[in-house]
Write a structure and sequence with these properties.
14 strands, FAS1 domain, alpha+beta, seven-stranded mixed sheet, 326 residues, 15 helices, single chain
Length: 326
């Protein structure tokens, strides 16, 4: 009995020893838990600045920006547009004659400054490729810019385009090396003949000037002083006199009479009253007298209106036709 018990004990010890020496069981793999990726927002392209903000940010247009502000055009150039701006650099403004810019920035010269700036702006978005195909471009001022290509360079009037196609949210900027100055307004024609035509009281005188071929002469540089008879003055001539004078065969006689009404130089009324005579373009003198505050030519022809200034002289109106001495 004891022997069996001993054998059983030894078997149990051996089993336990074998179990202890056996390799550990490999655990079943555990599937990892899926983690959703973190969403990354897409990168947005920066919004383009408008023309004014682009000019401010650039740093080469501080004078242009100051001028736009002084002219009150900031809001206009921030509007939807589109606009094409030919933008002078600070160096371009600095090249203006001394004092020009300071004068333009004065409040009393705001309109002139505004006109200059609007002369740099074209309606629409005109890229460089389009500019080179143009010969002119109308500006917001209503006056055209001349466009030309020379030796591969583009010129706007006489200003050279040095940088092109700076795109903005409301148009495009092309950089130029000089300030564009709009052409001066042509002065309205205001010669002695123009005034006589426009006045309405000198229709006969104008017809006589045309018949005598003197329109161009009295539209010339001068200056001249014209003693101008009214239509009533011509009508007071003896019957048939005017009709006769206007005949082609009497052109020289008519010319002589008209030139007897013209004095070389601009003689204002204040000067006339100090004279006793004046030599006409015909070469014959007019006598001048002052009676009761009135000025008379050749004693009987009264000056009724004085100092109608023209671009090439002055007109004094008289109440009768002057006839040269024989």
């Amino acid at each position: 009995m004891k022997r069996n018990t001993l054998v059983f004990s030894m078997v149990m010890v051996l089993a336990l020893a074998l179990a202890a020496c056996a390799p550990a069981a490999t655990p079943a793999p555990v599937e990892p838990t899926a983690v959703p990726p973190t969403a990354v927002p897409p990168t947005e392209a920066p919004m383009a600045k408008d023309i004014v903000d682009t000019a401010i940010a650039d740093g080469r247009f501080t004078t242009l920006v100051a001028a736009i502000q002084a002219a009150g055009l900031v809001d206009a150039l921030k509007a939807e547009g589109p606009f094409t701006v030919f933008a002078p650099t600070d160096d371009a403004f600095a090249a203006l004659p001394a004092g020009t810019l300071d004068s333009l920035l004065l409040p009393e010269n705001k309109q002139q400054l505004t006109d200059i700036l609007l002369y740099h702006v074209v309606s629409g978005k005109v890229m460089a490729a389009d500019v080179t195909g143009l010969s002119a471009a109308p500006t917001l001022l209503g006056k055209d810019l001349a466009v030309k290509v020379d030796m591969g360079n583009v010129y706007i009037n006489e200003a050279k385009v040095i940088i092109t196609d700076i795109e903005t949210s409301n148009g495009v900027i092309h950089v130029i090396d000089a300030v564009l100055l709009p052409p001066a307004e042509e002065a309205a024609s205001n010669t002695i003949v123009d005034i006589a035509v426009a006045d309405g009281r000198f229709t006969t005188l104008v017809a006589a000037l045309q018949a005598a071929g003197l329109v161009e002469t009295l539209s010339g540089e001068g200056p001249f002083t014209v003693f101008a008879p009214t239509d009533d003055a011509f009508a007071a001539l003896p019957a048939g006199t005017l009709d006769s004078l206007l005949l082609p065969e009497n052109k020289q006689q008519l010319t002589d009479i008209l030139l007897y009404h013209v004095v070389s130089g601009k003689v204002m009324a204040a000067d006339v009253v100090g004279l006793t005579s004046a030599t006409t373009v015909l070469g014959k003198d007019l006598t001048i007298t002052v009676k009761d505050g009135n000025v008379y030519l050749n004693d009987t022809v009264m000056v009724i209106i004085t100092d109608i200034e023209a671009s090439n002289g002055v007109i004094h109106v008289i109440d009768a036709v002057l006839l040269p001495p024989q």
